[in-house]
Amino acid sequence: MTAQVLVLYFAQSVELTGLKEEELPDVPTPISSRDLWTLLLRRHPRLAALQHHVILAVRQQYVAVGDQVVTLADGDEVAVVPPLSGG
Amino acid sequence: MAQEVCCLKAQLKEKEKEIAALKKKLAQLEKSHPTVLELHDKVTPLTPLTSNPALSNEDIMRYSRQLLLPDLGVRGQLNLSKTSVLIVGCGGLGCPLAQYLAAAGIGRLGLLDYDEVELSNLHRQVLHGEENQGQAKALSAANAVKRLNSTVECIPYHLQLSSDNAVQLIQQYDIVADCSDNVPTRYLVNDACVLSGKPLVSASALRMEGQLTVYNYRGGPCYRCLYPLPPPPETVTNCSDGGVLGVVPGIMGCFQALEVLKIASGHGSSCGQQLVMFDAQDARFRSIKLRPKQPGCAVCGENPSVTQLVDYEAFCGSAATDKCLKLNLLSKDQRITVQDYKSIMDDAGPHLLLDVRPLVEVDICHLPSSLNIPLSSLQERKSEHLQLLQERISELKQQMAGDCRPPVYVICKQGNDSQKAVQVLDKMSGSEVDNIAVKDISGGLMAWAKRIDPTFPQY
Asked: Which of A18, B4, B351, B412 has a Cα at 20 to 30 A from A59?
């Protein structure tokens, strides 16, 4: 099974990918959050700079990058959120 | 002779006018601040906040519009007057936060900042005025807040929050707001709040985005639960590098004020297990539901390894400031000073001056002879830019006799990106472009403005 998801990029991930959002047509599902992150890294190798410091969210829910398995449906939002520290 | 006397008289009159204006200004200021605020340069014990059993008639009139809200009411207002809030950072977030907390009638405000007011702060740090330049931000903010509401007790702290003073300071307050501008301070404030059991209303802003979460609150996560490891310092962008539209921290600071007021009044915050993100481009807020606090967290978990404050600058590998750090990536012979470049320019020898800043910065100011190719284009090997570079190198080679390597001098704002560009160009030299002799101009355009051309703009 695959799903078409919308990936939203925030803060530094916008610079690293050059995108604010993109549609990914064939994301396998169910998928572990680690594999989902790896899939994004393959598309945008520069995202590696955020490894271990990024929040991944699926359908506005925090997902720890690891073994957690997520089930995706068409139209689901995946958000890549690095921390901001300015003020 | 007569003319000189006339001229002196006119000058004297002008000066007298100036003195009169200054006297007037001073009188006005003294009138508006009957009590002179004392700037604290160290943490001292505070007397307990005295609580009023009831609202005075003046309180009722002043706060009437919010007393009418069932969400606040008299009880909520009295709760505000009993609450003390420590604001860490009196900048783009801290200014609007302090302003609304004071206006709403918070009992005590601790205002902490180590910096002084600069001209480049004024577009977003709205409590400070032109006349406050050079003044401690904590004092400037406290004076502004006092003008707004003299019943609020203000304590300005002109000090660097550190592992030695953070717990002692934070445990004297009920709620802490993180309005800081750097990663080490964010971890320090988080850990001190966890160790002291205080809720932490934390916001941040950069460019056109903001984030807000209330940490260590009602079973929710702390900053370390979300970010166990600090980001590598070279991946962190600060406001002085990345820029920020003033109103964006303004909105986030107001948002912090809202959550602080909800906690202080007894209503409670709904951001304890939520990361709220603000996108100013699309004028959109989004929320991410977070996990509860993590049993394995190093500071708020079940077996914490952090049981007292540590060295946060060492932990993060960066200084607790948003000032630009100076990189040193190159050897001495790969760098020249701005004075060296001035002589090269004066000698008019054939060379290429390559400005590697983003276009938006080149639009602010640039040296007339420079070619602009942003560092990111070099790193990504953008073909149109590489072609342009090769063309200019070929032109230089034609101008120069023999088969020597054309000299390329690389410049940016402060001399960090230019060093990275030199590394990239060194790799490209002889393969992706013809052989070149690349050197970095140390200190960049800001050094040029300071040492060579004082009319060149600084930003």
From this structure: A18
